[in-house]
């Protein structure tokens, strides 16, 4: 079965992006470009096919535009500050977010050009590997890529954890077990073809802590989660019920 990275919120074109706080609209952005993806995190990010733009949540003001075709973006608070990974088709970049620089610039009410605040990000590392899925665990970025390897990167040093026997996708990390969980395409294939009985058999093999990640796929397909036997009602179940 397959999962999109946990930090990707939407995967469709947007003409207008709305920022909600406690389900109440807070701000609205009307970008001058077709937004192909939106990422959450420390700041709001929207991508076209050619670049990514970062905005602050409070005022939805432009922080920085970076010219790269982004597939994955993820923030993490580490021992050296706020770090973001930006992954493209061919490489991934690890950048440090200079929060104080951005805050000072925005507080000054100085107008920014289409590129945003020049020193908002500092490039720390560039890796010539294509990330399939990735997660932050403390200062460590764990990812797998097209060569069927599970790697982790710390301070720019890459170490291979495992050679996979087939394409896999990172589901998450359980600190209580010190384990990284990966999944294949089986669950997605079963859901897409409507074989919910078989999907119901596969789901228990996933740790309960990650059941919501499996349910997200069903939300995207607008299926009723009552057909999948997950213990207890979840927020996602209620959301799907409202859509039905």
Index terms:
single chain, 244 residues, alpha+beta, Methylamine Dehydrogenase, Chain H, 2 domains, five-stranded antiparallel β-sheet, four-stranded antiparallel β-sheet, 17 strands, globular, disordered N terminus
What does this entry look like structurally?
This protein folds into two domains: 175 residues, Methylamine Dehydrogenase, Chain H; 60 residues, no CATH class. It is built from five helices and 17 strands. A five-stranded antiparallel β-sheet has the order 1-4-5-6-7, with no helix packed on it. Strands 8-9-10-11 form a four-stranded antiparallel β-sheet, with no helix packed on it. Strands 12-13-14-15 form a four-stranded antiparallel β-sheet, with no helix packed on it. Strand 13 and strand 14 form a beta hairpin. The longest helix has 10 residues. It is globular. GO terms for molecular function: structural molecule activity. InterPro entries: Beta-prop_COPA/B_2nd. This is COPA/B second beta-propeller domain-containing protein.
SSE map:
Layout: E1 8-10, E2 17-21, E3 24-29, E4 37-39, E5 44-47, E6 52-55, E7 62-66, E8 72-78, E9 81-87, E10 92-97, H1 99-107, E11 121-127, E12 131-137, E13 140-145, E14 149-154, E15 157-163, E16 169-174, E17 179-183, H2 186-192, H3 196-202, H4 211-220, H5 235-243
Antiparallel strand pairs: 1-4, 2-3, 4-5, 5-6, 6-7, 8-9, 9-10, 10-11, 12-13, 13-14, 14-15, 16-17
Helix pairs in contact: 2-3, 4-5
């Amino acid at each position: 079965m397959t999962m999109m990275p946990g930090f990707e919120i939407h995967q469709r074109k947007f003409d207008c992006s709305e920022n909600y706080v406690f389900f109440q609209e807070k701000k609205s952005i009307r970008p001058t470009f077709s937004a192909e993806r939106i990422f959450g995190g420390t700041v709001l990010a929207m991508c076209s096919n050619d670049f990514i733009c970062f905005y602050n949540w409070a005022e939805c003001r432009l922080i920085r535009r970076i010219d790269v075709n982004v597939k994955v973006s993820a923030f993490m608070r580490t021992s050296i500050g706020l770090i973001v990974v930006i992954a493209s088709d061919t490489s991934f970049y690890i950048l440090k977010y200079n929060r104080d620089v951005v805050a000072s610039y925005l507080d000054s009410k100085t107008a920014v050009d289409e590129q945003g605040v020049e020193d908002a990000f500092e490039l720390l590392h560039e890796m010539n590997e294509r990330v399939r899925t990735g997660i932050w665990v403390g200062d460590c970025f764990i990812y797998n890529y097209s060569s069927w390897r599970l790697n982790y990167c710390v301070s720019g040093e890459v170490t291979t954890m495992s050679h996979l026997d087939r394409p896999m996708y990172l589901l998450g990390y359980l600190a209580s077990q010190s384990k990284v969980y990966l999944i294949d395409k089986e669950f997605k294939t079963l859901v897409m073809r409507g074989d919910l009985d078989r999907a119901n058999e596969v789901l228990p093999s996933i740790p309960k802590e990650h059941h919501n990640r499996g349910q997200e796929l069903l939300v995207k397909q607008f299926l009723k989660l009552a057909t999948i036997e997950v213990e207890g009602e979840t927020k996602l179940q209620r959301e799907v019920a409202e859509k039905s």
